[in-house]
Amino acid sequence: MISTAAATRGSIASKQGPTLLLKSINGLTASSRGLRPCFVLVQHTQLTPTSRRNFTSSPSHPKITEYFPQKETEKVRKTEAAWPHPVYTPEQMLAVTVAHREAKTLSDKAALVAVKVLRWGLDFATGYRHGKATKLGQKDPKAALEKYGMNEEKYMMRNVFLESVAGVPGMVAGMLRHLHSMRRMKRDNGWIETLLEESYNERMHLLTFLQMSKPGIFMRLFVLGAQGVWFNALFLAYLISPRTVHRFVGYLEEEAVVTYTRQIKDIDAGRLPKWEKLEAPEIAVDYWKMPEGHRTMRDLLLYIRADESKHREVNHTLGNLNQTEDPNPYVSQYKDAGKPHPSKGLEHPKPLGWERTDII
């Protein structure tokens, strides 16, 4: 089915305008143990409520069972994002690099160990063996690709699971700080909004990937169980040591930047042919304000990687601050506006976070 879409993509894009990504009913099989997404590109048209209900498969596009229209009622035309996304320039996104903050304190080391354990578990579950693949690739590249190579379906399964749990830390932290602020009857100095916005952004990543794939029952149950454990573990951890949790999320986002960087490199190396000219879904175009001519899967991964790099910076910065007294530097107004300061965009990136002495 993807080959049919690829063959017609050029003519559709040039003659009919934007395209809409649809998904098929392909689900879980015992051999895949995860997602088996199938991509179909069709002409994007304005559908009436009646035509939406009657939208079914056609001979040229079989097995199309559902799609993701913008929610619309008789009186509501469109619902904008709660937090408008800052605009990234291509130069800013290409400047994002892999970085690692050295673990200095005992809480830093505990956070780093926890991330490494989680990373190992996710790698094992999704068949991701980058280290072994690199080592074998030095001797036999073909064997490494056959044994450890990641394809589009494996990466998509990994991305869906990763983003399904990535939105939990910000929500837990924001919720606890919200309740804490009410109990103390004091302001939270701007932390709550940034944490909730981070959680919202991670959910938008998930919704974007779900426009391209349909999780099977195994993946849905896996996500359900993981989210239950994840939420409660973070809830208890944040009550005990907010600083450790922010450092933990900072290290977790470091790994996310690594993962998306490798996906971008695999596209550039031609190892993911289905993604080379795959168009980003409409929800992504609207959310990131993606310009014409820069709406491929590679462009989408650049935006998402940039977001993860920002979460990396924000959480490392919050981990450097006094957890109860310091204001949130990402929503503060500074006395010396001429110097670089933390911001929501990528104007002054600090991959390892801003040190407290530089901003407070």
TrEMBL record:
It is a multi-pass membrane protein. The chain crosses the membrane at residues 160-179, 217-240. Fe cation 2 binds at residues 202, 253, 308, 311. One of its GO terms (molecular function) is alternative oxidase activity. Residues 336-360 have a biased composition (Basic and acidic residues). The keyword Nucleotide-binding does not apply. Binds 2 iron ions per subunit. Keywords: Electron transport, Iron, Membrane, Metal-binding, Mitochondrion, Mitochondrion inner membrane, Oxidoreductase, Respiratory chain, Transit peptide, Transmembrane, Transmembrane helix, Transport. It comes from the Eukaryota. Its main location: mitochondrion. One of its GO terms (biological process) is alternative respiration. Its cofactor is Fe cation. Catalyzes cyanide-resistant oxygen consumption. May increase respiration when the cytochrome respiratory pathway is restricted, or in response to low temperatures. This is Alternative oxidase. It comes from Aaosphaeria arxii CBS 175.79.
